[in-house]
């Protein structure tokens, strides 16, 4: 038993090393004084300084933040509303809708990207618009909404239905009960869905590549274009910043989930003790 546990831990550590050593090397060489990707010649912040003066990267970074925030906010609203509707469905209807909702999650990104591109091309004959911010935001909403739904639904299932009934008995109407009881109860799931949507939008390349057009570039597309010409240490610097930002988002997400679990556990204990 001890031997199996040791082998399991060893395998886990090997997998983690395989996954994270390239990222660690990238971070280390983002502080390299020279352009060498093989020898570390000295500590320097000059690539971060040059990054701040690289107009192409800064513009694409701003585009990425705007698109990610807009898509995450809209997807959170739509996904939360959809989750509430799905939760109130009958079992058969709920199963069908959940299976349909899961398709964008398991569907290859290349298929989704090409499909959305063809959809927007077809819409150009009906509505006069160009590929750019609008198509990118709509595309990101399309793959963000399922993640919001899957984060909000468990919170709706955990919520005690009698809370809404109690609020109505105390004089709340449907709207007041929704905003004062339901929303606070599911808020950890809503916020987790927002953070996950934000992370996926910042990270997305394939779908953005097919739906961005020529006028707008997101950061992943800009980095891809730079690597095709010449790999600059500035790419290491911007990749390090993105990695640290996503790690911070994940830490916040895990903290909120753990706090929500502790709160639910404390409430359950309080009910039992009462």
Annotation keywords:
274 residues, mainly alpha, 0% strand
Outline the structure in words.
With 274 residues, the chain is an all-alpha fold. The protein starts with a helix and ends with a helix. It is built from 11 helices and no strands. The radius of gyration is 23 Å and the shape is globular. Helix 4 packs across helix 6 (133-158) and helix 7 (162-169) packs across helix 8 (174-203). The mean pLDDT is 82.
Give the helix/strand layout:
Blueprint: H1 2-29, H2 46-51, H3 55-87, H4 91-106, H5 109-124, H6 133-158, H7 162-169, H8 174-203, H9 206-211, H10 219-229, H11 233-273
Helix pairs in contact: 1-11, 3-6, 3-8, 3-10, 4-6, 6-8, 7-8, 8-11
Outline:
The protein has 274 residues and is mostly helical.
Low-confidence stretches: none
- Cα(first) to Cα(last) distance is 43 Å
Supply the helix-strand structural class: mainly alpha
Q: Considering DSSP H and I runs of 4 or more, what fraction of the residues is helical?
A: over 70%
Rough outline: globular
N-to-C SSE series? Answer: HHHHHHHHHHH
The pLDDT mean sits at 82
Characterize the main sheet. Answer: none
Number of helices, counting only DSSP H or I runs of 4 residues or more: 11
Radius of gyration: 23 Å
Task: Count every beta strand, where a strand is a DSSP E run of 2 or more residues.
Answer: 0
Strand content: under 5%
């Amino acid at each position: 038993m001890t031997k199996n546990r040791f082998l399991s831990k060893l395998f886990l550590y090997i997998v983690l090393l395989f996954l994270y050593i390239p990222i660690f090397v990238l971070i280390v060489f983002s502080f390299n004084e020279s352009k060498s990707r093989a020898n570390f010649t000295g500590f320097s912040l000059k690539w971060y300084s040059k990054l701040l003066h690289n107009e192409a990267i800064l513009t694409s970074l701003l585009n990425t933040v705007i698109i990610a925030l807009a898509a995450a906010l809209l997807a959170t609203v739509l996904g939360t509303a959809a989750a509430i509707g799905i939760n109130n469905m009958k079992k058969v209807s709920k199963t069908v809708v959940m299976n349909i909702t899961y398709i964008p999650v398991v569907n290859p990104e290349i298929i989704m990207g090409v499909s959305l591109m063809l959809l927007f091309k077809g819409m150009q004959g009906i509505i006069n618009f160009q590929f750019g911010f609008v198509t990118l935001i709509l595309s990101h909403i399309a793959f963000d909404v399922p993640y919001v739904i899957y984060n909000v639904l468990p919170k709706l299932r955990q919520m005690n239905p009698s809370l809404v009934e109690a609020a109505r008995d105390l004089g709340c109407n449907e709207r007041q009960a929704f905003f004062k009881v339901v929303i606070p109860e599911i808020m950890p799931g809503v916020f987790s869905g927002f953070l996950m949507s934000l992370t996926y939008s910042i990270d997305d390349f394939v779908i953005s590549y097919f739906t961005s057009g020529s006028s707008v570039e997101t950061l992943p597309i800009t980095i891809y274009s730079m690597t095709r010409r010449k790999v600059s240490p500035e790419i290491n610097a911007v990749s390090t910043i993105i990695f640290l930002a996503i790690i911070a988002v994940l830490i916040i997400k895990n903290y909120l989930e753990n706090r929500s679990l502790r709160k639910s556990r404390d409430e359950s204990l309080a009910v039992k003790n009462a």
